[in-house]
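OP here, attaching both records as promised.
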Amino acid sequence: MQRRKLGRLFDVSRYTLGGGGIGQVWGATSREEAIKTVQDAHEAGITLFDMAPLYGNGEAEKVMGLAFPTGYPHTLRLTTKCMLGGANGTDVERILTASLQESLKLLKRDYIDVFILHGYVVPDNWHTTLPPKFLSKVAVTLSTFNDFVIPAFEKLKKSGRIKAWGVTAASTQVTNLKIINSESPPDVVQCMANVLDSAGSMEISGERAEPRAVIKQAKDQSVGVMGIRAVAAGALTDTIDRPVAADSSEQYDYDRAARFRLIAADMGASPAQLAHRYALSMPGVETVVLGVKNREELVDCLLAEAAPALEASVVQRIDTAVRN
């Protein structure tokens, strides 16, 4: 498998195995199958594994901790995350540290390569129609991020318990760019990388999504880019593999990807294969996070990575079909 340098950090495989699938977020699987999927992913050349406590209430981290009973291969790297929500600034360091310690215990590891803020950073005094109760669970303000989150991350780096830190760039565009362009930028951002430029159910701002501008700015600042949601939470597959509401963002994205599926069929590929080839072709995306939950889905993705890069004319055809 090809590799790229992740920002200023280290080389990583073009694919990252995400924890959502093996944590049973994207449909049912068994722990045994999830463990075998992790093992096969590593054997196939995947070197980065992206975990979080929220992926199955710790299930993804448990699976990783069980997948290598004799110890992790020296080439394998791990991320995990912490959802701070509307924590008071003075509580940030304690919450991050406690979450990290629990993750390390489940992962059976004494350090994490990249510790990522799960959720959103939003502007101070942000006016939004989102329920305050919801926002308090998933977002921190920009001032809290600058004054408390960054210092806590840097302290953890100095302790050796993390090697780097990152954020999810799925907030308002101005906030995403401010974080990347700050005096203390993250080492890594996770950013939407799909045909539709869609954040799906992760979208909170109501703006027209512009993830490619975020990716370009991150690249310019030597911030590593992990592309997420390559299949738009299932919208860019043959069929969404779990029940979704008729008025959900996933169903909306699935419907507007109808022409994309026709192009995939015309090319003799599954929609998921073509979606991953497209994400891998996006400039500035150094690794694409997979949401697979079993070995069958993993094989489909591996075929996409092994295929030739999409020609510019094919990318243009896809873009035109989706935009229209």
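Record two, same layout:
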Amino acid sequence: MDETLVVASGIGRDFPDGTAGRTTVLRDVDCAINSGARIALVGPSGSGKTTLLHILGGLDRPTNGQIEWPGLGPFEDLRPRWIGFVFQSPSLFPALTAAQNISLPMILAGELSSADRTAALLLDTFGLDELADKLPEELSGGQAQRIAMARALAIGPKLILADEPTGQLDSVTAQLFFDTVLSHLENTGIALVVATHDEAVAARMATRWTMEHGRLTLQSLQTGAS
């Protein structure tokens, strides 16, 4: 039976707009994420996708409404243990090598004995072995994003939230990258939510969430996911 990992009820988020007013980014959003979910979060730039991901992952709090993580435990345990993030902008630690960036969540969680072995395995999985000792400044944008995905997977979280993970990859490389991610997640029960403008990526997910003007609509797809 699927486990409910995250539940959002009536959440809204607004921010100061610099003129003593406020800009509303999310409006009355209701959604839930179950274990094993494959969700594409689509919509135009500025529609609220990134803000929603940050709230679902506990990086931001809603202005109103309620967000809970019934399948993930207390808030303080969400990261790095149970939620892995892949951000839209570069997020690797510049002083750490690619391998060290991947192993960092495991070290923070106290799993030192298997950190190096897991990093090496994920570098091999993503075909990035030759980058193990490279610093982020020596990586292309696409390579950095693949390292960031490997880092998100390293500790075996229950949920991966990825913001445009293929945005810096060409279409062929993006599909090969996504092949690897989906294969790695198969039969694990790990849920995956991907904010994307890439229709080829979105079409492979079982559920589509569409953001428009801060509002969310949900659609389960019967075909197209693989």
